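It is worth pausing here to work through a concrete case rather than discussing structure prediction in the abstract. The textbook approach is simple: state the sequence, then state the predicted structure, then interpret. We follow exactly that order.
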Amino acid sequence: MFATSFVLGYHGCDMEVGEHILRSDDHVGISSNRYDWLGAGAYFWENSPERARTWAEFLTKHPPDPKRRISEPFVIGAIIDLGNCLDLTDASSLEIVRSGYDEFLRANAIAGSELPTNEPAHGDDGDLVKRHLDCAVINFVHLLRERERLKPFDSVRGVFTEGGPLYPGANIMAKTHVQVCVRDPKARIRGYFRPLAGSS
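Step two, the predicted structure:
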């Protein structure tokens, strides 16, 4: 959780946006949707330009915001310094999130608020891709650390198994991937690059 390490991340976007980032000092924007899987931050597919391109192509056909429609799918790569990472493959990180959930549950009970729930995006969505609960819990973990004056997390990293079995009888899922959420891209991204042709 506390070791610094570098990973390669890939972000799917519109070509105009990607080209602008590659030739400027701008960064990938922060996503703060209530359903984001790892809380608020800039999102990357770890080591998978193919998944980043597939995602950009999906958004071309299913834009979450019609004003920001992707007209030409594009992929940019990023060298990410994870820093102090809430790594959901690590037992101590998982315990932090579990404790955060317990506190979040108590806070909602005191406030008389209903807990958010993870929900399907469409009828046959068994992966519950609208992760309202998970997003709220992870954002609450960040808030707790700030209140307790603990070292903040720079990034959140998680492995996700989705998409159904890769083949009949498999326990390997067709869309298994690693996502990285960078909370402050200006502080943690060391550089952007254009993936070589054929790598996405």
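Step three, interpretation. The chain has one domain: 6-193. The longest strand covers residues 6-14.
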